[in-house]
Specification:
- With about 850 residues, the chain is of the alpha/beta class.
- It is about 50% helix and about 10% strand.
- The chain has 34 helices and 17 strands.
- Helix 32 links the parallel strand 13 and strand 14 (about 775-780).
- Helix 10 packs across helix 13, helix 23 (about 520-550) packs parallel to helix 29 and helix 33 runs antiparallel to helix 34 (about 815-825).
- The longest helix is centred in the N-terminal third of the chain and has 38 residues, at about 225-260.
């Protein structure tokens, strides 16, 4: 299989071919600095750096008994004082957190109870291996892990889950192995996806934030128990963490001066001296120039990663908005060219690319294949006044994505009904490039939902994409706890096997809803399935109730809190369960939507309506994984399927969705949050599929489930517009308990060829917008390319594909996920 067999290559595929054949990338000379840095680490296996974990642990040993926020701030200050600082060759920005090249860091407050065992497995992991030196492994085993035994949040959560919840959550007494039925996610990250108010730092600096904290500290009532116990340590922590990041920046300034003294090249010496001057100023003081603004944001972004493990990595907010005043002023004064601005932001891109978000737990690693990352940069959208927000910097980010072949950062474009044609043209051309950028988020869905949940229009208009497909409103969102992942297909299997799953033998895990061979009507089957689904709802919400009350005892976030208006106003850490005036937006994930819809549709049609097969015959075939039953499997696959704008299947999908929404609407208030339904699996539809046997839609046992709100692999036969319409028809718009739906669409490059293809793609995007769908993302790639890369991975190491809210190198994915991507329908007509 070669690229020669394809009708037309995407520009990204052409770059891969050029690289295989030894031709220079056509954009290399225009992005020489970024390529020079990229060449030093691209394709290398990341290494594990233990310094953050070591200094964090040393500090916590010394601060036992003190308030948690204060302990966290002191630990960050110790890290800022002691962690190795370095400045990469060619870089214009200072700041990294680990060893040269690609690297990851440890968070023992999350993984300390099994960290010593986990480090031995990292180099051998299939999906995302890491290197660790013998000395660093010794430090982990002997100096870091022992302190955390018995102290981690994970251990506390595992100990208090009720038995009926535990058996659907974990597959072992220690809670180290997921059951992949109702999966908790709060134990392998300190916080769900998040966006800081970066503009606050650019305009004020941490010197002024420190001043505010000190003034609030001095103004506390010395006789108030609440001020003494809650507010005093919080404001002390903000003062300490402000000093910490300023100290860290100054250490980089000194490093730049030292390097300049030893630098023989005059041009590089000048760059280092300029870097030293900038690092001595920001982020302590307000930024004055575009370069200072980029460096200040980069320090905050990096230091945030030292502070905690934010699920899906800390996102970057509306970068084209908060950077634009500095960009505009410098361009107009002649101090900045477009080429120099591109150099600076691409120095950030390659810096981001070297930090790999490491999941130590086996479950976390299975959820996030291919060194997953979602440090979203949001462009486009609307201003707080509701006007279109696109500007020259918006288009510059898109240009960078087209010309510089890197899947960092994760670029997200906000679309609304009045998005300019020029912006959509630029977006469509970037999508056609073929590396999966940008993903699209729809203002026409997100803004009204946020207003319905308590936001002002100005706050909702100013949301930023955060993580895979979600969004955040800086200074108003206040919820940080990860929610449960619910396996739709497991509920279906328990319906068919009376509360049991073939993977787990005769153990009763769900409800005994009866022998399905005795069901006489479709409604009998539906009611049995509904009971299993509601059991999963109850389990997910019970998990979350415990999670909400437990996490604040284990995690603090002084720097993130310092950047949040409500935390500073009320003197409360961001991990506090209830912050006055905040909006608590949580969610739980539903995995395998299309798989279950198609399975129920097949049973309704062929078992109960047409009676072409009996339930006994079907169940016997499922138990044997359709061995010797291929004609039956072929028949099942002809049933109406979700993703084809078929009312038969779509009504079942809408009913399933409604069950979750009704439950959430009734019981979220008990949790004190909006615990909304979301269809965003990351790559979890692969491990969740590994516990589910064959399903009545013809899916083979233990293979991946359907992805997000996308159709089952290969089941969408009526074209991409039908996929949009099925998404629209299956949403219950009368409920506000909705969150993101992730939708993957795959086109062949031929389908979107030329200007006519661009116009058709823009029309498709406008239809997505008009239908008020939340999210859509695209792969523009030939199936033959993916097959060739699977066969000869060494040649295709630079091939980037869109996975689940992020892009990754295809060859870094497990075979299961590669096959899942290959099996998705590649639409040749738009």
């Amino acid at each position: 299989m070669t690229l020669d067999c394809c009708d037309l290559l995407s520009p990204h595929e052409q770059r891969v071919r050029d690289r295989i054949e030894g031709r220079e990338d056509r954009f290399r000379r225009a992005h020489e600095r970024a390529f020079a840095i990229l060449d030093t680490f691209e394709g290398t296996t990341p290494s594990l750096d233990v310094e953050r974990a070591l200094y964090f642990t040393q500090s916590f040993r010394q601060t036992e008994g003190q308030p948690l926020a204060l302990r966290w701030a002191k630990a960050l200050h110790r890290i800022a004082e002691n962690i190795t600082v370095c400045i990469d060759d060619h870089q214009l920005l200072a700041g990294r957190l680990g060893k040269p090249g690609r690297y990851g860091i440890l968070y023992p407050e999350l993984d300390g109870d099994f960290l010593d065992r986990a480090v031995a497995d990292l180099p051998r992991r299939i999906g995302a291996p890491f290197r660790i030196s013998e000395e660093d492994a010794r430090v982990v085993v002997e100096e870091i892990a022992p302190y955390w035994k018995g102290k981690t949040y994970h251990e506390a959560l595992n100990a208090v889950l009720p038995p009926d919840v535990h058996k659907l959550t974990y597959d072992d007494p220690e809670g180290l192995v997921s059951r992949f039925i109702v999966n908790e996610t709060s134990s392998f990250r300190s916080s769900i996806q998040w966006v800081h108010d970066y503009e606050k730092v650019l305009k004020r600096g941490f010197g002024d934030i420190r001043r505010e904290a000190q003034e609030r500290l001095d103004a506390l009532d010395p006789l108030s128990p609440r001020d003494e116990v809650e507010k005093k340590p919080f404001y002390q922590a903000v003062v300490i963490v402000s000093d910490a990041i300023i100290l860290w920046a100054r250490r980089h300034a000194q490093m730049a001066r030292d390097l300049a003294l030893a630098e023989p090249d005059e041009a590089r010496r000048a760059e280092l001296l300029a870097m030293a001057e900038i690092c001595a100023r920001v982020p302590e003081h307000p930024a004055r120039t575009f370069h200072e603004a980029v460096q200040s944001q980069w320090f905050v972004q990096m230091f945030s990663r030292l502070e905690q493990k934010t699920g899906t990595i800390i996102s970057n907010g509306r970068m084209d908005q908060y950077f634009y005043p500095y960009f505009k002023a410098d361009v107009e004064s002649g101090a900045l060219s477009e080429a120099r601005a591109l150099e600076l932001i691409e120095c950030m891109w390659v810096g981001i690319a070297q930090f790999i978000d490491l999941y130590i737990s086996p479950t976390g690693g299975a959820f996030n294949e291919g060194y997953a990352h979602w440090e979203a940069v949001t462009i486009g959208g609307q201003t707080p006044e509701g006007r279109d927000a696109t500007n020259a910097l918006t288009h510059l980010f898109l240009k960078s994505k087209r010309e510089f072949p890197l899947h960092y950062p994760d670029l997200a474009a906000r679309i609304h009904s009045r998005s300019p044609q020029a912006f959509l043209w630029d977006v469509a051309e970037t999508i056609k490039e073929g590396s999966g950028f940008p993903k699209l988020i729809n203002d026409e869905e997100v803004v009204p939902l946020y207003v319905s949940k308590g936001a002002t229009f100005a706050e909702a208009y100013d949301y930023a994409v955060s993580g895979c497909a979600e969004a955040r409103m800086p200074n108003r969102d206040t919820y940080t706890s990860g929610g449960a992942y619910v396996n739709f297909a497991a509920a279906l299997e328990m319906t068919l096997f009376n509360g049991r799953m073939l993977k787990y033998g005769d153990r009763q895990l769900g409800l005994e809803t009866g022998d399905p061979e005795t069901f006489e009507t479709w409604d009998d089957l539906w009611q049995a399935y509904k009971k299993q689904q509601l059991l999963f709802c109850k389990t997910a919400f019970t998990q979350q109730h415990i999670v909400c009350t437990l996490r604040a005892r284990h995690f603090a976030q002084p720097m993130g809190s310092a950047l949040h208006d409500l935390c500073m106003k009320h003197g409360l850490d961001l991990h506090t369960p209830q912050i006055p005036e905040g909006i608590n937006l949580g969610y739980f994930e539903c995995i395998g939507f299309g798989t279950v819809v198609d399975s129920l549709a097949a049973m309704k049609k062929f078992v109960f309506e047409e009676k072409r097969i009996s339930m006994a015959e079907l169940i016997a075939a499922l138990k044997t994984d359709f061995k010797g039953k291929e004609p039956l499997r072929c028949l099942l696959k002809t049933a109406p399927c979700y993703g084809n704008n078929d009312p038969y299947a779509d009504q079942i999908a809408k009913d399933i969705d409604r069950v979750f929404l009704e439950y959430s609407a009734k019981y979220s208030e008990e949790l004190g949050i909006h615990n909304d339904i979301r269809y965003v699996p990351f790559t979890s539809h692969v491990p969740f599929g590994k516990v589910v046997s064959a399903t009545p839609n013809g899916r083979k046992a233990f293979t991946p489930l359907s992805d997000g709100s996308s159709a089952s692999q290969g089941a969408d036969l009526n074209g991409p517009t039908a996929v949009l319409l099925s998404n629209y028809e299956t949403k219950n718009y009368g409920f506000r308990e909705r969150a993101a739906r992730l939708l993957n669409i795959k086109f062949t490059p031929k389908c979107v060829e030329g200007d006519d293809g661009t116009r058709k793609l823009i029309s498709f995007i406008r239809a997505f917008c008009d239908l008020k769908l939340w999210h859509v993302q695209f792969n523009v790639v030939n199936r033959e390319t993916l097959l060739a890369a699977q066969k000869d991975p060494d040649k295709y190491r630079s091939l980037i594909v869109r996975i689940a809210g992020y892009s990754a190198y295809f060859v870094d994915l497990s075979p299961d996920l590669q096959n899942d991507l290959i099996a998705r329908s590649g639409h040749g007509v738009l």
